Request: fold
Amino acid sequence: MNQYLLIYRNDVSQEFNPSPEQMQAIMEQWGAWHEDLAKEGRLVASEALQTSGKVLAPDNVVTDGPYVEAKELVGGFTLIKAESMEKAIDLAKGCPLHAGGEKIEVREVMKFEF
Reply:
């Protein structure tokens, strides 16, 4: 099986302030989806990302990032195992973000032999 990275892109122009009850429901959906992936032996890793960070540019120039001008920010990722891109996309369709209308970028992880 190959590995695929599901990259969660959040639209920063949309305000997201769920109530505690809504947040609980969202976390339960995420937990159930991750549990299903883990039972199938497909879940490798999954994490949310802080909204701020740093960008390391050539010549070791460090700047604040991600940039405020960006419409979309990467909010997190899940690394899964799947037989094909099509299967990875099918698995991504079960993600709670997809049900909420957010974009999920699906990328195959390249294999290198050293």
Summary: DSSP finds three helices and six strands in the chain.
